[in-house]
Specification:
There is one protein chain. This protein is mainly beta. The chain has strands at 4-7, 10-13, 18-24, 32-39, 46-51, 58-60, 68-73, 78-83, 92-100, 117-118, 122-127. The protein is globular and about 40 Å long.
Length: 128
């Protein structure tokens, strides 16, 4: 099990940028595939992006492709979500998630149930 703590959320204007961070406890961070999910009020938690253990492979939801970038620094036990050209519909609580082992194949990696470990979430609000 790994403990995850997100940071970097806040208020941003439409078209602006924000970078979220998720720092993990423990020494085996590089053994975990990592993902970001989000949940807007009244909606189900949805997949945003995920990254393989090495950071070589990344996958994105169509709604954020070309605007968001996931990356990781295994030396710092941290995964990042760079949000560019933010839209009001990006407003949500963003969650970091971890899965021990390789990044799952499509469509498994889209499911929240594929990730046993979760952070507490960080609020992102995009104003129009």
């Amino acid at each position: 099990q790994v403990q995850l703590v997100e940071s970097g959320g806040g208020l941003v204007q439409a078209g602006g940028s924000l970078r979220l961070s998720c720092t993990a406890s423990g020494r085996t961070f590089s053994s975990y595939a990592m993902g970001w999910f989000r949940q807007a009020p009244g909606k189900e938690r949805e997949f945003v992006t995920a990254i393989s253990r090495s950071g070589i492979n990344t996958v994105y939801a169509d709604s954020v492709k070309g605007r968001f970038t996931i990356s990781r620094d295994n030396a710092k036990n941290t995964v990042y979500l760079q949000m560019n050209r933010a839209k009001p519909e990006d407003t949500a609580v963003y969650y970091c998630a971890a899965k021990l082992g390789p990044l799952s194949r499509s469509p498994t990696y889209l499911a929240a149930s594929d990730y046993p470990d979760w952070g507490q979430g960080t609020q992102v609000t995009v104003s129009s």
